[in-house]
Amino acid sequence: MAYGNLANCSRCDALFVKGMREVCPKCYQEIEKEYDKCARFLRKRENRGATIYQLSEETGVSVKQITKFIREGRISVSSNPNLGYPCENCNTPITSGNICDNCSRELRREIIQQLDVDQRLADEEKRVNNAGYKRKAHKEE
Ligand SMILES: [Zn+2]
Ligand SMILES: [Zn+2]
User: Fold this and answer.
1) Which of 16, 18, 39, 128 fits as disulfide partner to 7, beta carbons 3.0 to 4.6 Å?
2) What angle do CA 88, 91, 94 make, to 5 degrees?
């Protein structure tokens, strides 16, 4: 067996022969069992409004794993409208991506601000290089 095919399971860290999956066969089976539990719980009509925390509590499956099921599209958020998973930044329930709208807006603003600062620093540098000693005559902003 080729050494390059060995990998650590992303779930239990055991060494295994990497195929299509990120996890070892034992964990794969565990995950399938966990998926079954979630699917069975959600199949009941009275559980359709469950939140991810209720689902986790009732099935013993971690919120992190349920999040994966939702991201993979195995658990449908459209048929379970309250089943958002927490935003990685502020824990607001979301149904796609890693962070909520607010946080992504905030993040975008920060990036733009950073770009702005970078641009200004670059401009400043250019000015210093162009103006040379003349710059000393100007007032600091
Ligand atoms: Zn494993
Ligand atoms: Zn957020």
Assistant:
1) 18
2) 80
